[in-house]
Amino acid sequence: MNPVNTIKQVLLQSGASWILWFLGFLSLVSLAIIVERWLFYRARECDLPALARTLGAHLARRDFGAALQALGDSKSLAGAIAAAGLHLAARGPMAADRAMQSAAALERSALERWLAYLGTVGNNAPFIGLFGTVIGVIGAFEALGHAPAGNGGAASASSQIASQVVMASIAEALVATAVGILVALPAVAAFNYFQRRMATLLSATEGLSNLVLAYLVEDVPDGDGG
Is residue 132 classed as helix, strand or coil in its secondary structure? Predict the structure, then answer.
């Protein structure tokens, strides 16, 4: 048996049903990740203008303890990063800036968790479904190739029956492609949505970080180090 026939037999014996089960599994995992990520991003948001006003008022009085308390109470991403800088405020604005950059890098890793999975499923689920369709089409043409031959009217009837079987098989095979697209669409939409949410959160952190640095720079004497 040549390699083509060997591969064909393996595909025909495996069938395409396992493709549908696999796509169903990917869809369930995607749904779980979408819910988890939505809750995670929601928990890290805050009322940025209100938090900035509160933080600015405390920093204007040099009340760093109250500022840290306000940032901790917000439980937001921007607050956590700004707090990392305030913890090193005594070492100067450069140390605070480095601390906030480090905290932002660590938080970004948490924000990006599982997004690669959604992007991968969104890009590849249609191809997985197409693979199932190809297997189904191979089976349909294999059945057509083994259709019994007849003479005269019997041949016409046999050909018609075989064509109906092939069309029905191809229609069933196309279900795999449809399911693959159905699995990919929410994954792609969620991936793009969470990318925007992440960009918004990181932008908010820059706002608070710059506010903290602005007040810390005021404490540096003119001509320091000269």
Answer: helix
